[in-house]
Amino acid sequence: MIIGGFAAQAQAQSNVTIYGLVDAGIVSERGGAAGNITKVTSGIGGQSRIGFRGTEDLGNGLSAIFQLETGFKADDGTLDSTNTLFNRQAFVGLKSKDAGQLTIGRQYTPLYLAQSQVADPFGAGYAGTIKNLFPSAGANTRVSNALVYSTPVIEGFSGDALYALGEQAGSTTAGRQFGLGLNYAQGPLNARLVYNNKNNDTAAVGTTPAKIQDTGRNTMLAVNYDFQVVKAYFAYSADKGVNSAQLPSANAFGYTVAPKPSLDSNDVLVGAQIPVGAGTIMASYIRKNDKTVNNQDADQWALGYLYNLSKRTGVYLAYAKIKNKNGAGYTVGNNNEAGSGDKAFNAGIRHSF
User: SUPFAM superfamilies attached here (predicted)?
Assistant: First the structure.
């Protein structure tokens, strides 16, 4: 009786939505040291997930909000992150129509949101994902222990600020991360300028001394413009410092001398989405310019097609090829996997709910 009464009371006060995505298909990878690989996999275009989001009206334009989201593998039903339930997002906060939004917990960085929502015609998924060459690994995508403030939208302009505590005993800076974003979205134009800074220091633990390293710094401009007959995309990123451009795969091609993550690089993307009937053609070209003495550059060409069977269900095909130079080791992955070679083909189906 008490439990039932509490549930009814909570339902009356809050609006909770259950949502998700199920994405599965076939991936064929070529060119890696492991040989040719063909497999059924999950999360090709977007990671399969289930989530809960809610809001409660507190009055005077103020609301309490929360979001909990976990990823899973549709091919075998397992969680995509061991011993972590809500690995994708887990936050709570307050939202005001006049003052903006403040949230606390595990959240996306402004850098990754700009990559996936503005810069990439593939939406950070499929074989052509921006993540194959742009710096999206690890904490560049999402970070724990984060406070994020987002301003209200004024004449199309808005801003975001993220600060994540490193939470290492004995140090207030080791492992901390912060990010900033300036956004503009009005009419056919969508643009974001973002900055991400990750402290790579580790505090002393017992007899293990502290390790002091350079920070990883990423600055990116992302723009898209909808001409109706075609939606054009452009992105430019400058990446400097330790972990500013981590390799998605350590040594996928089995080189005698393993590829080295660049400490100073630039990334450029040009791409397009072309509506064709009930579907969309996606295409992009990405260039990684390693400015260090190693000069491990790479180029990627990608082409894909998403056909919408309904507003919630679509089928897709995608192909991408990377050309590595001077011992570079970049691989063609997808939204959920780093990939194993320099070429990959995808075919699958996705359903959102």
Answer: Porins
Token duo for residue 51: 């989530």
Residue pair 164/152 in contact (Cβ under 8 Å)? The answer is no
Contact call for residues 338 and 317 (beta carbons, < 8 A)? no
| Cβ-proximal residues to 132 (8 Å cutoff; 6+ apart), any chain | 248, 286, 300, 320, 322, 330, 331, 332, 333, 339
Amino acid sitting at position 246: Q
Residue pair 342/324 in contact by the 8 Å Cβ criterion: yes
Q: What is the pLDDT of residues 65-124, one digit of tens each?
A: 999 999 999 999 999 998 899 999 999 999 999 999 999 999 999 999 999 999 999 999
> Rounded to whole angstroms, how far apart are CA atoms 35 and 96?
54
What are the two backbone dihedrals, phi and then psi, of residue 47, each rounded to the nearest 5 degrees?
Answer: -60, 130
Token pair, residue 99, equals 């003052």
CA distance linking residue 180 with residue 168, whole number of Å:
23
CA distances from 298 to 123, 255, 257, 286, 325 (A): 20, 16, 17, 8, 6
Residue type, 338: A
Q: Which two tokens stand for residue 245?
A: 């451009």
**According to the CATH classification, is domain 17-352 in 3.30.565.10?**
no
Sorted by where each begins, the domain ranges of the chain are 17-352
Return the number of other C-beta atoms located less than 10 Å from residue 172's C-beta.
Answer: 10
Gyration radius of the chain over CA positions: 21
